[in-house]
UniProtKB/TrEMBL annotation, chain B:
Function according to Swiss-Prot or TrEMBL: NDH-1 shuttles electrons from NADH, via FMN and iron-sulfur (Fe-S) centers, to quinones in the respiratory chain. The immediate electron acceptor for the enzyme in this species is believed to be a menaquinone. Couples the redox reaction to proton translocation (for every two electrons transferred, four hydrogen ions are translocated across the cytoplasmic membrane), and thus conserves the redox energy in a proton gradient.
Reaction catalysis annotation: a quinone + NADH + 5 H(+)(in) = a quinol + NAD(+) + 4 H(+)(out)
Cellular component GO terms, alphabetical: NADH dehydrogenase complex; plasma membrane
Subcellular location: Cell membrane; Membrane
Domain of life: Bacteria
Family: Belongs to the complex I subunit 3 family.
Protein name, as recorded: NADH-quinone oxidoreductase subunit A
Subunit structure of this chain's protein: NDH-1 is composed of 14 different subunits. Subunits NuoA, H, J, K, L, M, N constitute the membrane sector of the complex.
Amino acid sequence: MIPFLAQAQDPMTRAELIADDPLWLILLKAVVILLLGPILTIFLIVWERKAVGRMQNRPGPNRVGPGGYLQSLADALKLPFKEQVIPETADRKVYFLAPVIAAVPALIGLAAIPFGPEVTIFGERTALQLIELPVSVLLVLAGASIGVYGIVLAGWSSGSPYPLLGGLRSAAQVISYEIAMGLAIVSVVLYAQSLATSAIVDAQQSGWYFYLLFPSFLIYLISMVGETNRAPFDLPEAESELVGGFHTEYSSMKFAMFFLAEYVNMVIVSAFATTLFLGGYLFPFVGADSPLNQGWLPVLWFFAKMFVLLFGFIWLRGTLPRFRYDQFMKLGWKVLVPAALVWVVMIAAIRAIRNDGNVSTGQILVIGGIVIVVIVLLSLLLPEKKVPDEDSVPVTGGGYPVPPLNLKVPETTPRRKALQAKAKAARKQEPAALASTKEGSNHGDV
Amino acid sequence: MVLAQESAATGIGIYLPLVLLFALALAFAVFSVLLGPLVGPQRYNKAKQAAYECGIEPSPQPLVGAGRMPVAYYVTAMLFILFDIEMVFLFPYAVSADALGLWGVGAVTLFIATFFIADFYVWRRGGLDWN
């Protein structure tokens, strides 16, 4: 009864609650957050393999453990006992450092994510979050971009062409999509008026941002797949083009670190999306004072939302083919970034007009709708750009696109030249050879 | 008491858990990387140590690290710096957008429009095309 009264008398802010943690509690939280990454990775891999297997009409792993669910645990235990092969051309210091640089930011990325509201752990009041900063959002973004150093250094230090290409692609890809991601987050910050993750969750009590800021949510979803190098944007490790991409030359535990970093990054961006757009740990349609949003239950809501997003990753991988690199960069720079910028300006203007002037949201929406309709109509009036289609196949064969049958083989390939020279030489020798055989046969006759 | 609490919640001390987690994560990663050579087998083989190129003779590489890279990546990196700086300025604006009001919207629109000029210049010059 007494702690109950004390709780009621002493309302503390989230930051104060977390700052008051004793050292053992900080350590406990840190260890839990550190282990959450590898544990979720092990689960995610087997879940992905089983789900993709079902999507392709095959059972997936089903031998190790109950239902095959211990498969990736067995794989993880196996990896340290594999030989590590280091190419002669590698820059050994950077080669060893790169997996560490990739894994560490991934492992600390979950620190700023609020998993739940105020709870009591062994009699100590605290909030389910390792650190509460006024700039937590920037911390998560910074962690996401430092991870790419590991990838690009891995590609560079291997001293081999495929990893270099994979590392470069990855770097270009992550930095391109990070801008779109950051701009999507700007609009969330604009609505929440704070860069603290817990404040953003609190601000969503009146409505989750995924429908209030739907374009931002879409841009974030696309860029989070690009940022984590996952299918259909898995160009850095496109196995049909680059063998394994940046980790071609890596083996044993160093390879495991890259794998871990990739999957933990998926968890981080999904957890971040949950926090920013899906109301974090809040249960829908009830207030923060409802018993559904108190104690340990919200952790369940948080993970449920996160797993929906993680399943989205798996679903994408099972559904879509890989993008071509130029298409991918085009989508990032020519569609997502300009769209995100225009959207940020638009909502900033709408908010300011609504707050400053005596204009209602309805009026803004009507005027905005009219403007959009006019723009769409004007774009319809523009003449369509004719694209000269040089490579097009002429339609022959009764309306079916049959490739032309009179294709000319170029005469210039080295092999063809060599063959022609050989044939020429053979023709030169032929008359002489024929004559000699004739003579021989004549002699025989005589 | 109130003062002490406030300093606890706003001072540099709030970063302590992050430092702790960083140390733990670093220890985990370094331990994992060093574990491989300790417990794994080591069988030397000349062909195994060569750079992997699908079985063909590896193409000659510089003595340390990798060689040249396509120039398009540099353009992307420059553009990234441009837009990242834009984002750095947009975050503080977004936090205080309500306080700045319409004046702020005008200022930030001008700011973004300036970046759009740079973006369209690169776009028209073909800096965003990958062929």
